[in-house]
Amino acid sequence: MYEAIVADWQGRIRAATEARMPLRIRGGGTKDFYGGTIIGEVLNTRSYSGIVDYDPTELVITARAGTTLEEIEATMHAAGQMLAFEPPHFRNGSSTATLGGCVAAGLSGPRRPYGGAVRDLVLGVRMIDGGGDDLTFGGRVMKNVAGFDVPRVMTGALGTLGVLLEISLKCLPAPKMEATRVFECTAEEAIRWCNEWGGQPLPLSATCYHRGRLAIRLSGAPEAVRAAILRLGGEALSDPDGGEGYWRSVRDHAHSFFAAAMAASAPLWRLSVRTTAPPGDPDADTLVEWGGALRWQVADERTDPNALRAWARNHGGHATLFRAADKRAGAFDPLSDVMTELHRRLKAVFDPAGIFNRGRLYPAF
Length: 365
What we know:
Distance between the termini: 33 Å
Number of strands: 17
Strand order of the largest sheet: 13-10-12-11-15-16-14-17
Shape: globular
Order of helices and strands: HEEEEHEHHHEEHEEEHEEHEHHEEEHEH
Strand content: 15-25%
Number of helices: 12
Structural class: alpha+beta
Number of domains: 3
CATH topology of the largest domain: Uridine Diphospho-n-acetylenolpyruvylglucosamine Reductase, domain 3
Radius of gyration: 21 Å
Helix content: 25-40%
CATH architecture of the largest domain: 2-Layer Sandwich
């Protein structure tokens, strides 16, 4: 059955390439808002689902692109393991987020600074390129790459280089204990404390600051977590499930900060900067994650996209227009001439006719 699906997709892709007609690759649709506006006939990957191979002793899972994250995480949870990058589901009711969409978007959740990013844990991919060829890169072990690391290139490419079929990921053991502590502080104090704690042997696994309240998650062996609580202090989070629901709300953008921005249809910016960067605009509604390295900011009529992007560059990073009805400012930072040429060459290799997710990353691709 699955190979018949692949054959059907290969035929559609070859026909689209010949006609120069765009295809819109779509899984669960939970990240339709992300990136530029795209066009084309939908190629839905949900039918190509299921776990291909999972050996907990090898700490590797391989699944088809249409497999839901819920299925993958439930299977791993039963074996006491997890996806260390804590992928966002962006759920609306029940989650329909798929593994393919997760890898294509390259987005990580609250655990990312401590457990690794998506591309750090992708071992191999099977994909269909713009010529309709079924290709496999990488494998199911960490040290197997010779030459160009295609799995990393596919991660975060937003489907502009090909259709993901199967993905192999590195798994990690789930922590034996987790606890969340809350501190009342200013934004400056939160950033300073997170940087200080990040340089110490503490079992940090997530941080989140918003409106005078810093929450940190401690994960690991029970003895290490209890020792960190005694050392750092703070108050226990008022949450019936011990903080799991709170961090899931941050991960999936159900937290009150994100909910208010979506309810107001306000543009949401994602600023990736140095952990030591100052708080920024004191009048803007901002949420700080990743020990200070990730800043979410709600835009208003005063917000100048160029100034915001310049601020991010000045502090070692970049700014992404994450959610917005009007994306004339561009979803992603403009590329340098060198990076533009690199993107063009990659596109020419994998999708010479430019049919895949046209305009999702940049208008030129």
